[in-house]
Design brief:
Bound molecules: D-xylitol-5-phosphate, zinc ion
Shape: globular
């Protein structure tokens, strides 16, 4: 995938929640383009993290945009609160939204980038009707809920299928984001498959130097894209 800029989005789910500001600053020193913020409600996924108040605090310290990933059962109820808190990109799961067309356009009308997320077991066909409307697509390459899980290899074919689907819908500007189990050993393959935004949690924050880990991942991704 020559000539496209690949963005790195460190996921704070693997950071020290007692020192989120320092974690964000370290990732930015390493060249992070976005900060990936995982919102888990203990219902759609078997884990609980943060809500709008924490996003608001992060917005006060982050220099790069906040990429907020909603893993919650009722996103429609909270979209406005997360946008007010400072989300610049907001993604919602297709598996929980019967009125996805309405939700995506509602998010866009609030002036932020709207993305749709697919779990590993969800087929690309599920987003065919909305493909022309979304600003980005997030492919889960692990089952959502935790950091530090193993990358699911079939995600590569899924990325290629979604790229074709978006291009067929005339939405070739919409980037594909990947989330789960990414590190320097597999980032080249996902970029080669068509990914333009790379989320990484444990590969960055479960290391002695998150700034250096962010830079290493960014360099490995850039090597394929250039
Ligand atoms: C999982 C989250 C991911 C996770 C990625 O539900 O959506 O963003 O934090 O962490 P790693 O990179 O460790 O798999
Ligand atoms: Zn995520």
């Amino acid at each position: 995938m020559i000539g496209k800029r690949v963005r790195i989005a460190p996921s704070i789910l693997s950071a020290d929640f007692a020192a989120l500001g320092a974690a964000i600053a370290a990732a930015e020193r390493g060249g992070a383009d976005l900060i990936h913020v995982d919102v888990l409600d203990g219902h759609f996924v078997p884990n609980i993290t943060i809500g709008p108040p924490v996003v608001k605090s992060m917005k006060q310290v982050a220099k790069v945009p906040l990429d907020v990933h909603l893993m919650i059962s009722d996103p429609d109820k909270y979209v406005e609160a997360f946008v007010e808190a400072g989300a610049d990109m907001l993604s919602v799961h297709v598996e929980v939204l019967p009125h996805l067309h309405r939700t995506i356009n509602f998010i866009k009308n609030l002036g932020v980038k709207a993305g749709v997320v697919l779990n590993p077991s969800t087929s690309p066909v599920a987003i065919e009707e909305i493909a022309a409307e979304v600003d980005f697509v997030l492919v889960m390459s692990v089952n959502p809920g935790f950091g530090g899980q193993k990358f699911i290899p079939s995600s590569l074919q899924k990325v290629s299928a979604i790229r074709r689907l978006l291009d067929r819908a005339g939405n070739d500007g919409a980037p594909i984001e990947i989330d789960g189990g990414i590190d320097v050993s597999n980032v080249a393959r996902v970029v080669d498959a068509g990914v333009e935004i790379v989320v990484a949690g444990s590969a960055i924050f479960h290391t002695p130097d998150p700034a250096a880990a962010t830079k290493a991942l960014k360099d490995a991704a850039a090597a394929v894209a250039s």
